[in-house]
Amino acid sequence: MALDRRALFLTGSIPRALLALAAPIILGNVLQAGYQLTDAFWVGRLGAAAVAAVSVSMPVTFLVIAIGSGLAMAGATLTAQYMGAGRQDRVNHVAAQTMLMVTVTSVLLGGLGFMLAPSFLALLGVAPEVYKGALGFMRVSFIGVIFVFIFFMFQSLMRGVGETRIPLLIVLVTVILNFGLDPLLIFGWGPIPALGVKGAAGATLITQCLAASLGLMVLLRGRHGIALSWRLFTPDWAYIRKAFFLGFPGSVELSTRSLGLMVMSFLAASFGTLTIAAYGIGSNILQLITIPAMGLSMSVSTLVGQNIGAGKLDRAAQITKLGVLFGCGALTIIGAGAYFSASHIVAFFVPDDPDVIREGGHFIRIMALAWGGIAVQLCIASAFRASGNMVNAMVLALVAQWMFQFPVAYVLSKHTELGASGIWWSFPVTNIAVALVSVCWFARGGWKRTRLTEDDQQTLQVTDEALTEEGYR
What we know:
This protein has 18 helices and no strands. By secondary structure, the chain is an all-alpha fold. The protein has one domain. The termini are far apart.
């Protein structure tokens, strides 16, 4: 079966290969979004303050997770390229070392986030009625960071070798469990006390622990493209150094995106509880709507990585172009549907608050105008990362957040009559502008000159090479 997948990915029909990878990933991401959507559904029954508490907490948690995720991205990139080059021994070694680094990093970051949670909320300036719920949700979420990291790494490694069904089955089991635990812990039942917003985080913590445990069992049994043994977890300091140089730009990229979400939450919070609640609902919808493009971009990453590892650069470029076209078309169609049903979508989550329904619907209608641009960015950034050019993806994230998103949102909301609507309009402006920048940069072709599997020493130089090739030095 592994040989059949490898033949399809390297020599078979590109649309078929994209579909074979993307379909399970998209379904898995839909199920994973069930964590957030289930939380949003039940927390919405507690009122606008509870929704705002979750909305404020999530970007901070994502920021801490993103700081350590560059190492996972480095491992996934190397796994895909070594798989394409037919070097199974390196696949196993990279997987074990990356899992070790991710676990240690997650313990450090989770503990730091737990201690600094009150400072984060003070920095955001949340309203008094939101603070208690946000602090409880945030601290429980930080406890679960280690399990999030481990399962994220497991998924990335499985995608790198082209195995997407096993993670899908694990997510299915844990989402079903989360759906049952959420109302139980939020509202209580019998001897189980009602924990409110903290209960939603607790339910997710339990299911994430289960998912991480199952993922480790799969890797240690070694039946699905990666075979780990305990001896492979002995620290390889040379590889750790290489992974740091490769993964650091990825950490900066993801941290930039997460920090941007946190700053946008801060800006929304300055307009009051109604605006931050509408922003939270709209952000959840945005995550759900972009799932098809995320799944497609992940499949593009796997295929581009394996084909670059096999020396098929033209095929890698063709894969990226088809991914961009498919994703842009799909999200444009989805955006049109969301535009006409925006109020009904928000009402599903907050049925008894007409003000949040009105403002959240307004946010979604404005965002939906340019969702196709998101798919363009995601697919091209995935191709950059898969080729080892993490710096390119990092620069795109910096441009998106700090040259477009936040400046536009701040100017329009604070210095025009749009008010809070100025925040909403920053989304389509950013999506269109960054999509155009991405296409132009990809067309230059500098990303083709990096191949990590030709010479392991090149991993140490990839950051400098990417900067030099693209004219940043």
